[in-house]
Amino acid sequence: MISDDPQIFNQALWKLYGSFIVFETTYFVGKIKTAQTTEHLEICYTISTSGSTGTPKIVHVPFSCIYPNIKALCSILEITQHDKILLVSPPTFDPFVVEFFMAIEKGASLIVVNRTSRLTPSANVLRKITILQTTPSVLRSFGTRNIRDLFHPKSSLRCLLLGGEEFPSMQEIQLWLPRQVAPTPKPVRIFNIYGITEYSCWATINECTHLFGNGNLGIALGKPLDNVTKLQINAIDDDMPLPEGSACKGELLIGSFVRHCYIPQFDKNMHAWRDNEIIFRRTGDLVERDAEGNLYYIGRVNNCIKRLGKRLCLDSLENKLGRLFKQKAICIWHNTSKQLLICFVSEKQEDAHAKQNLQSVLKNELCDYEQPDQIKFINEIPLSKHGKIDRHQLLKNIVEAKEKISETPLTILKSFLDNVLGIKMANITNKTESPKKRLKNNLELSFTAAGGTSFHALSLSMQIGEIMQDSDTQRQLLEMLLSSETTLQNITHFLKNYSRPRPIAKSLAEAMLRIPSNINMLDIKMLWRADLRRCVDASPSIHDNVVSVGSHSHIVLSFNTKTGEEVSRVNLSDRIECPVVFISRDLATVGCYDGILYGFDFRRGKISWQLNVHGMIKAKPIVTKELIIVASYAEEFNIHAFELKTLSSVWQFKLGNKGIFSSPLQISDDLILFCNLDGYYALIEITSGFPKWIKQLESPIFSTPAQLETVSKELILAEVKGRVVVCSSENGDEIAYFQADGNIFSGITVQQANSNENVQLFFGCHDKNVYCLNYKTTTKHLSFLWKIGLNAAVYSTPIVGFEGTLVACSTKGSVVLIDLRTSQLKGIYSINGEIFSTPCISDNKYIYVGSRDNFLYALEAH
């Protein structure tokens, strides 16, 4: 195996055999150890995947797999000894093998250049080549002028193959073609070529004879490259193969009876594929097949993000932007700041008019949750060593450039208004009266009237809040952004007069987690942890001796609570953030991003049934003796009730206009409380689905509500802008409220105090504090008792634990125990990952919590 990274050979399977240098780049050769070698495999080469289809894997490629590729391509491209093939791919990228072997197979010339020349070849090199195989990103790096020269009638280029990434749009290709040039009798043949390293190398090909595309779907992937390649589409919801020839959408799988690569991570038995059985490999790509049988690439199955309660596919958004603007757009999610960045590649600086036109199109054509937080124009795209878009490097470049600029709350607002809403706030002199008047009119609009959305308001307030140390000021800003009565002029004046507090020393910030010396601490240690392969944002659930949880890797895993031994595994079609609800001794249910509520046997790992509610499910379902009631993000009805025995629909209801993130609360045998992202909260009758009453708060409700165990059964809600509200269960009217110093995403936990007259309420806050409030039942008065600062925001719900403690988690991975008698820290455990999962407890000493480091943790406190 050849790699430019020697570390890849530090495995029991490999021995570093030697190295060689090509154009000042050192490549290392690894030799598979004899004990692992099987002569019958007739391996041609071994290569490592880049990780674009999942975790990087070692792939052993036999001659029987790669040779049909070479033979078919040589025939399709009509390669002869007179051709000149440019070796664009590096040796660590499997198209290198194709370029190399095609030249050997037909005796063609192979033009070898260094890495710099591969990305920006000279005009002299381009004039000589007849065959070019590369990624669209590498081709773009040539520059528009050089690309047009390739398509010129006098160009020597015969065939252009583009693969490894999404094929360019028809509109972009037309921009590359030379203008005002007479048609040539022999135009350049352009191919869309597709494949994965696990099926080395190419699987399908499509010659774009007339640059024919299917509207919004783009250029088809084409037909199998050879007669031994088989294509299969699996449904996203149940992973079952869809009927051949049917119009459908799902994940593409590639297989063959002949072309078999050996992958140790998957093929534990080296001889398993000698029985002439077809073996399919997952691509991780979402494709759509039309009625004529044409396949179109849609995007990566898992390239979706959660944006303030909405699911957004970045690949689909890029396709949409490409069709709108006829140029490559790159969508990046900055997870740290929770911001959506859209980058446009432009060889010249955009003028103000073009920029304003772009902003206008974005506002009119994109949905609210698709609107960017920042728009960037870049001169060139950073590429990986394999010639693909390096999104990590691009994001790093943007972040580093931003860090060099000293930002203030006012400059952040100005940048947003300028780049996203198209409202220029540069200083205007008296000589330019018309622009000044226009600016004045713009600034007299409210944030929402100027084009801002509630998503923008929350994102902007959180971004500015990273600078503000004053949580009360941050909360006030969010209220101003959401208010239709507050103008942009008011907001800019507010931020202009904001006085930035003196920075808090890091030692002082970390001292918020210092442990008092006089406290008898509880020791917390890790009992076990389990890898769920991707973020575990869902809250774990316990039944008997089983703990179950889902993750972003589309799997629900169940474990023995004491040993961590895996009990069962269920594969779903999309990410899971909904908690598991146990129905019986063997049956449980969980909601999924695909809009389906799954019933599954958590002891055997088998799916029992599916209920499609047509909207993302994050909220915990309610299971009664007769019904299953589930809330979702569905647009038509966001609340559904099904009969538990027959699974038939009983009733449906639409609360507000947005989705439901907050888990519903059953307050009696007859009534359930629902809260949604419009700020609506409603008490719904379980049997009929009729609302007893509906009320609305001023901002979205992410927090899961609670009920007081008092005579009046008051309800406790928290809206995102920091208000905790006590309301009547009879009519929903507000009784009392408390204003926290930051946004609230955490649920509410209640505990009866020593006196029947007092009830304590606990919740986490974005201001990095865990709060304790007291509600006096006799006077209906809600008051502040104490708060304790952690090292980061608290999104998960604090829960009452053991020995009079409260368990709380911060987004920096701190799991803390708080003594409820003294309001002091009782214990701390640090996890190397963000925590959004709410913990659960068993046997009065075990804590289970998920993390964004992909693990479920079982902790023991004693």
From TrEMBL:
SUPFAM superfamilies: Acetyl-CoA synthetase-like, Quinoprotein alcohol dehydrogenase-like
GO terms, biological process: amino acid activation for nonribosomal peptide biosynthetic process
Domain AMP-dependent synthetase/ligase positions: 36-255
InterPro entries from the UniProt entry: AMP-bd_C_sf, AMP-dep_synth/lig_dom, ANL_N_sf, Beta-ala_Activ/Resist, PQQ_b-propeller_rpt, PQQ_rpt_dom, Quinoprotein_ADH-like_sf, WD40/YVTN_repeat-like_dom_sf
Boundaries of every Pyrrolo-quinoline quinone repeat domain copy: 532-860
The organism's place on the tree of life at top rank: Eukaryota
Any Pfam family the entry gives: Beta-prop_ACSF4
Transmembrane annotation, as ranges: none
Cleavable signal peptide: none
Gene3D superfamilies, A to Z: 3.30.300.30, N-terminal domain of ligase-like, YVTN repeat-like/Quinoprotein amine dehydrogenase
Protein name: Uncharacterized protein
Gene name of the encoded protein: 101896513
